[in-house]
Amino acid sequence: MLFNIVTIAFFASMVAFIIYLATRSEVVALIGNVGAWVGFVASTAAMGLRWYESYHIPGGYGRIPLTNLYESIVFFAWSIILIYLIVDIKYKQRAIGAFIVPFAFMGMIWAQLGLDKSIEPLVPALQSNWLTYHVITCFLGYGAFAVACGVSIMYLIKIGPEERSKGTPLTGLLGMFPPSRVLDDINYKSIMIGFPLLTLGIITGAAWANYAWGTYWSWDPKETWSLIVWFVYAAFLHARFTRGWVGRRAAWLSIIGFAATIFCYLGVNLLLSGLHSYGS
Amino acid sequence: MNDNQQNPIDAIWDFFCSLKLSITTLILLATTSIIGTVIEQGSTPEAMAQKHGWNLGLMQFLDKSIDAFNMYHSWWFIGLLGLFAVNLICCSIKRLPRVWYTVKNPVLVPEEKMLQAFSNSEELTVKGDESAIKEKVNAFLTSHFAAATVTEKDGKTYYYAEKGAWSRFGVYVTHLSILIIFIGALMGSFWGYKGYVSIPEGSETDRVYRRDKQAEAPLGFTVRCESFSVSYYEGTRRPREFKSVLTVSENGQVVIKDRKVIVNEPLTYNGIVFYQSSYNPIGDPSFGLQVKERASGQVIDLRVPFGATRPLPGGGSVRVENYGDNGMIVRLGVTGTDGQRRIVDIYDPSTNISDERRGGEYIFTHTGFFQRYATGLQVAKDPGVEVVWLGCFLMVIGTMVAFFMSHRRIWVVLTPGSKGMNLRIAGNANRNQPGFEIGFDELKKAFKNEMSS
Ligand code: HEM
After folding, report:
1. This prediction's pTM
2. Assembly ipTM
3. Closest Cα in chain A, distance from residue B61 (Å)
């Protein structure tokens, strides 16, 4: 029920931001922003409620709602919106919502329509505090990468016409986009937030694996893919720090990084086999 | 490297120091790692070809040429990691002394050119007593930023204050942490091993099967399995806990008694760690049955081994034919007083399915499932694991410092002139310039206010 409200709120927010790009109406932008906030609060409440319920299912012993594909998608959407709201407070660039909120909405709609929502008690391997730290850090990182990817797409759409216009401000839809310099900056800042979180996610995952199986690293496909994602963003940051890779190249790297993130999260489960088996 | 004058040693050195090399290595590692996630590691070309219908010739070629079935331990992948490490070491050797010098020898007296290069600066002229002005500047820097070092030179007075100079080392801590993790991993692979033991309940072992040697090796102490059990979530078949109770003794002396070991809670002794990983039934189970004869109301308790037959009051008999779900369901062959044989399924009491309603001559209740198990424990010895954690810890700290802190410096130069004292304030940060600018703008305003008051 509450999760449906979340989905609807994200949908409303997404539509409002898209209308905003077309109409330039500040009121519509405000609606989009409020929608994101409402969805965020409702999602927080819904996850809290689900946590509470897990104590009351037959044979239930209570557990954080982060242990199956459904719950993880919901948390992923929550993380994207959290990072988005932080960026929004800092940069006040309403237009970027149109390229970020859709990620959260797509996640929620898939979770609500396509995934098993039942609360199951945990199998022994998942009964660990490390699981909580691992999932939270990873998904906050993924949320930051989603934001980076959204603004990178905007950057790539905007930069061509902007260069051609040679300094005269763009009109129409593209005129509503933040200046490309700002988009580039948000891309970089989001990755700067996401990267340490991903690092923590990989480390807590290794700690957990070490507790449960006695190896902190076993080159399992999921582990390897998270390392691939880490390599991509490390390359991004180094290219930026010292070789001044900004603009187009940085935007492309950011999009590639997010594609790798999504593959790490979903593709590995659905296409490859290994220890992390949400998908099955 | 297009420079023909450069001698080859320097060229090699520059190559290993270059950031181009790091980015190339990172991207190569990222792309080649994908191979091992598609081709199941430890599998064989034949198995993979059969499982996915892939071309066997191609699989065999990948196996031979790039060791694709064990690629993370292949010479070329280890080589890439090695290149990565060498790159980091060279880079640090090259840069660290310079950074050290910058931190230890701050530019107390900046040249005119340097000051002009800073976009963050401000100039004003104030009148008044020189020593009072100096006093004010000093107090201002101390209260708004940091205590300043004062240098007098050529009639000018230079104030220098800095914050977060040590943050310049953040990058090196991060890079060092990666090397520390590598060292930990190497220690693990040289002096550690992975293994396996299987201990039947009530017995013990002092040997472990080592995967690396594919042979048994002595543990140096004895591990006894007191008991093993599986518990389920109420009313379901979902395992809740796999639990072994272990006792460790060394030289005939018990050193750890009745320690519970479950998944995620291993047992450690002498640097060797035991993880609950699997279990096997040993021999046939037996079953607790309570039988009530409906006619007489007489109740008896039986313990019946799998496949065995027991007589029942009134002349019938019961035999355990089969069982499932870890003894939750038991199939009985019941011969009644009429000599007819019937099949009766009974269920564990937690399922709340009673035999009463069947209405047979005998009412059966499932009162127990007695199965002897052997617990299966993963065994790991890894003397490098602490080193790896140290590296991880430093990486987190180093990354935070490298990303979110910066070395901020402020200079104030006092030049006496005919119209009064000329004050120049300039500042610089080695990272996050925009953030620094905002802070500096406020500082500038405060500076103007306080100096002119
Ligand atoms: C958590 C991971 C990492 C972080 C946070 C990090 C951070 C940094 C930073 C901030 C710089 C810029 C230094 C400057 O501006 O002067 C840098 C430079 C560099 N990094 Fe990394 N790094 C990481 C991993 C790596 C890895 C895995 C390599 C492997 C080859 C590497 C190689 C280099 C090199 C060669 C430089 C240039 C030399 C220098 O400026 O000192 N880094 N790194």
Report:
1. 0.82
2. 0.85
3. 22
